[in-house]
């Protein structure tokens, strides 16, 4: 990759649609919060925490990720976590972000739903005011738990409905297909929430189909295994159903062995509405810019195609048309400036 393309990526206005806020907990902050909250962790330094971040699949990552979340207790902790992520967004020219949180990871430990959402929301509001970064919140149900627990979580979310744009589905895909959550998603839709779901990350293409037909999702998180079903690919193209792809995550969790084998550029060139996202950047080795760079280093991609990834993310975002248009203009202006250089 040329140095010029690296600089282009750095400055490119970006939109992130697949980010687990708990997955942005850096070893330094994890260590600091463990001390502050007197939570015992089996590490004596942030370096030791970092060294423990070795995974070979989704489940081995999730086991460590849920442990890490134990240090988050007070509203201030959720605020600090979110604010640290927003500062990284500023560095990477992320102009809009839609973030996931996993309420059950916290409520199961006796942390109030309000504690979690208020801490996140406070930081996001400040992010808009002080950094000019707009945002939305998506609440995910943990699919390894049962539907009753998801219903209970939905009930807890209702008083905070104005702060949550959509519900999602994450955690272990294997053995927990979308159809396990059909009713709770239908109820969420009746309450006015949009829906998304992780599907086709480790699981089969059928999960993508089912997420669309049974959970009514507006976009699919990951979805890279759609290639196993050409008819599904044709439908995704025809309907412009967005896929929130997470390149570095896919390599760390062995969804693809190497970035050179990743299918994101192939999917983009076929006409799918694919986007680049960081998933759990503290665990997978990089935020938005790092994900774009990793793709551009391993795969042939033009600056125009890099811009198309930003345009796709704007199209796929949960903001109004006026806001989308403003963001499109930002990317266009950036492209025009580059063309003149
Ligand atoms: N929770 C956090 N990151 C996840 C991922 N990549 N897949 C499923 N659940 C997750
Ligand atoms: Zn994810």
Automatic annotation (TrEMBL):
Substrate binds at residue 280. Binds 1 zinc ion per subunit. GO terms for molecular function: adenine deaminase activity; zinc ion binding. The keyword Nuclease does not apply. The record marks 222 as: Important for catalytic activity. The active site is at residue 201. It catalyses: adenine + H2O + H(+) = hypoxanthine + NH4(+). One of its GO terms (biological process) is adenine catabolic process. The keyword ATP-binding does not apply. Zn(2+) binds at residues 18, 20, 198, 279. Residues 13-333 form the Adenosine deaminase domain. Its EC number is 3.5.4.2. Its cofactor is Zn(2+). Keywords: Hydrolase, Metal-binding, Nucleotide metabolism, Zinc. Gene3D superfamilies: Metal-dependent hydrolases. Pfam families: A_deaminase. One of its GO terms (cellular component) is cytosol. PANTHER family: ADENINE DEAMINASE (PTHR43114). Catalyzes the hydrolytic deamination of adenine to hypoxanthine. Plays an important role in the purine salvage pathway and in nitrogen catabolism. Belongs to the metallo-dependent hydrolases superfamily. Adenosine and AMP deaminases family. Adenine deaminase type 2 subfamily. NCBIfam families: aden_deam, PRK09358.1-6. This is Adenine deaminase.
